[in-house]
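Researcher: Quick one. two chains, 698 residues in total.
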Amino acid sequence: MPQERGFHVAVVGATGAVGQQMIKTLESRDFPISKISLLSSARSAGKKAVFNGQEVTIEEAKPESFEGVDIALFSAGGSISKVLAPEAVKRGAIVVDNTSAFRMDQDIPLVVPEVNADDLKNHNGIIANPNCSTIQMVVALEPLRQKFGLKKVIVSTYQAVSGAGAAAVSEMEEQTRAILEGKEAEAKILPVGSLDKHYQIAFNAIPQIDKFEENGFTFEEMKMINETKKIMHHPELEVAATCVRLPVGTGHSESVYFELDTDGVSAADIKTLLAEAPGVVLQDDPSQQIYPMPAYCVGKNDVFVGRIRKDLDNEKGFHMWVVSDNLLKGAAWNSVQIAETLIELGLVK
Amino acid sequence: MPQERGFHVAVVGATGAVGQQMIKTLESRDFPISKISLLSSARSAGKKAVFNGQEVTIEEAKPESFEGVDIALFSAGGSISKVLAPEAVKRGAIVVDNTSAFRMDQDIPLVVPEVNADDLKNHNGIIANPNCSTIQMVVALEPLRQKFGLKKVIVSTYQAVSGAGAAAVSEMEEQTRAILEGKEAEAKILPVGSLDKHYQIAFNAIPQIDKFEENGFTFEEMKMINETKKIMHHPELEVAATCVRLPVGTGHSESVYFELDTDGVSAADIKTLLAEAPGVVLQDDPSQQIYPMPAYCVGKNDVFVGRIRKDLDNEKGFHMWVVSDNLLKGAAWNSVQIAETLIELGLVK
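Model:
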C-alpha cells in the first residue's frame, strides 16, 4: 500500500517467530515506512536484521525507543506490552498489540479488519490484535452472522507449534528426529513452558494450550470464547472451544459447528456467501478432494474454508473446517492489516 | 482367560497392522487356544510367524481354511470378509469381523462388550466389530446415556495414521525424514489409497478419512454417526462427526461435546461415574496437567477420558477428551474381547 507519507514504524519482539513475520509482511505489503525501529529484549539487542535490503541493528526496547514512532507493532509477550505500550502511546505512537494484555479491556478495540474495522475509530492509542485461533474463526463466521444470524458455535482446534514460539518448533523437530532414531524424546517447553509438566509433541496431540482456569477450560479456550463475542459485538452468542496442540509447524485448523438464527439455509447458500467474503478463500469440493490443510496454507494471508455441510439433525446447524497461517492472519498479517486500516481511515496522526 | 476347553482360532489378515495386534492380544490374554490358523492373502502366504513360542506358517485364506475352526477373527478388508466370512460360518465357525462389510446389517450384532454384550445372543454366525473411532466414544458415552440419558453428540476426531495400515505409517515416517532434511515429501497413500489425490500427512492434518458421501460427510463420519446409534440402541440420538487424520502413529483422540436429557448434572457427577465405568480410565486433573494423550496410551486396552467440563451456555451440555489405542480397543482388543465374551456366554459351540 504505497502512500505519499511514510511512517516511523517500530516492531517490538523483532527476533521472535511473529516479529520476523511482521517484518516480512511490512516488506511484502510495501508498507509506507520512513524509518523502522526493530526492538527486542536486552539479550537480542545488537543483532543485525535486514529490512528492505538495508541492515538494521536491533535495539533494546525502552520507553525512549518510541520517541518519534508513529506505529508500534508489539509481539514480545504480555508483560512487555503492559509496561511499554503505554510508554509508546505517551510519546504519540499508535500501538497494535499482539498479546493478551489488553484484549478484554473495555476501552481497547479488539480488531479483525474484515469484521470490525469501525471499532478502530474509538481507539485510545492501543489496539489489540486477537488470539490467532480466534481471528481465523471470526473471519469465516462474520459473513454468516451478518446474513443469517448466529446463535451457537462449538469449535475444536488443531493448533500448530509455532503458536508457542520458534523454540517450541525446534523442540518438536528434535523430538521427531530422536523418535525416528529410536531414542527418547525430551520435552522442556510444551504445553506451557512455565508449568511443571512437559509432554512430547512429536507424533502426539496435547489437549492443553495455556494454563487452566477454575472452570476446567484453558485460557486459550476462554480467549476464543470471550474474544469472539467482543469482536462480533455479540455478547449473547453461545461459544465453546476445545484447544489442542498438534505436531504441525505452522497452520492452525479448526473443526467448527455452528447454528444460525435462520431456517431454510443450505450448505450451498453458505458456500456462495463465503466464496465472496473478505479475507476468505473457499476450498470446498469433496468430489475433487479439495479442502484446506495446514501444510498448504503456510505463507498465505487468507483464511481457507472447506468441508461445509449441513448437520443431519439440526435444520439450523452446520459444520466447516477453517485453516489459516497462524503467524500471518493469526498474528503478523492481522497486525499489519490493522495498521494499514488505521492509515486508510486517517487515524494515524 | 484360561478355560478347560481350547478353541481352534483363525486370524484372517494375520500380517496386517491389526492382525498382528490380534495375535499379540490372544497371547497376552492367555486365550484358550487348541490350534491357531494364521491366514492371509496369497502374497503373504508361506511367511512364518511365532505364536506362544511356536513357529506357525501363514497360509492363504480359502473357504477350506475354516474347516474345524471355532472362532475366526477377520481383519483383511471388507471384500475378503464378504466372500470368506459366510464360508467360515457355513463350516461352523463364529466370525468376529473387523471390517465395515456387515456392521449395519440388521441381522448382525455390532458389539462393544462394555456397551451391548447382550446383543451377542442374537448372532447368526457373524459379529461385527465397530469402527475404531466409534468404539472408544461409545465406551465413554454409554454410562452417561444409562444414568442421565443422551440427546446429542458432536465429535471432532484426531485420528492416527495406523488406522490406515502399516504402509501409511511407513509413508508418514519417510515424509517426516524428508521434510526434516529439507526435501520434498512424497505422498502415495493418504487420505485414501484408491482415490486420485494424495496429500502429505507429516506435519499436516487431513480432514478426510475414507471417501465422501453425497451429503458432504465422509464414510468414516457416517460410520461414527450410524454405528453409535446402533450400538447404543438409540436411533433418535443426534450425532455429528468431523474426522481428521493427524501425524500420530497410534492413538486416536476425540473432542466430544454431548448434551444429556437430565438437568442439574455437574462435571463432578460425570467424573465420578466414568471413574467406575467398565473399560474407562479417568485421567482428569487440570491442576496437575493430567489428561489423556495418544503418545501415552499406546499398548493399553483402556479408553482414557479427561478434560471433562460443563458447557458455559447449555445446562445439559458437556465437553470431554477421549483417547485410546486404535489398534487395540479400536480393533484387535475389542475383537478378542468379543470372542472372550462369546465363550463366557456359552455361545461358542
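Chain A has a mean pLDDT of 97.
Researcher: Thanks, that's what I needed.
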